[in-house]
Fold:
Amino acid sequence: MNKQNFKGSSTYVLDEELAKIVNISMTLEMPLLLKGEPGTGKTMLAHAVSDSLGMHLIVLNVKSSMKLVEALYQYDTLTRLNDSRFGDSSRDVANIGDYIRMGKIGQAFTADQRCVLLIDEIDKADSDFQDDMLDVLDQMQFDIIETDEVITAQTRPVIIITSNAKKDLSDPFLGRCNFHHIAFPEPSMMRKIVDAHFPDISRTLAQSAIDLFYEMRSIEAIEKKPATRELINWLRALQADLDFRGGELLSREIPYLGVLFKKSGDYRKSLEFVHQRGRFKN
Structure:
């Protein structure tokens, strides 16, 4: 069993419950399924585990049209055909293995050392993909049909699976994973996150930006609420603007709304919010 202990990183603030489920999942060698709204740090957790524990990170970005075999390996028939026609390659056309390339799961299985395998947005795939993938991850092996070869994992990777909860996952899938829901940070936790990213930030700017950020997240009928990454990028923009003064957020001025709101309708609503807020402050 793996004894490495993840405690967060310089830019990833970890609450106690998430730390426990990450570490017990690594110890029990079970996949960890993370759910939560976009921008709550699900994907970044895998990057933080990789950086903190010195493990290589392999990322499988799931697409709705993806077949499981693509995540395991690919047989490059086109290159083999070209090699057989033109004969100017160092590869052995008679050896199919020269034309097998590992997919992301295959790369994790054949890695020399334990790595982190991030399976991002699993809810995009159909239930057959999900269940068949976990069969492979349970057995830690798969077959290459073209060469009649069995690929067995040299070490069991740390497996982190994310879902935006857009589609229900099957009961067999859920039964094989540990689970944690990453809730959107409360303002006090968000302050810790901001301080981790900006250790020298003005206290006035940090607090006024956070207060205003939560106020704008509550604008009625917003389709895509700004997430933590938008707040971080917004603060970067404010700090990069040499003409900006932190106290301006306490007045009517709210610059760079386009960093926070990425949809046209949301952007218009944010402008209306700024206008109403200015009238109120007058």
Q: What stands out?
A: The chain has two domains: 16-181, 187-277. The mean pLDDT is 90. The CA atoms of residues 183 and 191 lie 15 Å apart. The domain at 16-181 is CATH 3.40.50.300 (Rossmann fold).
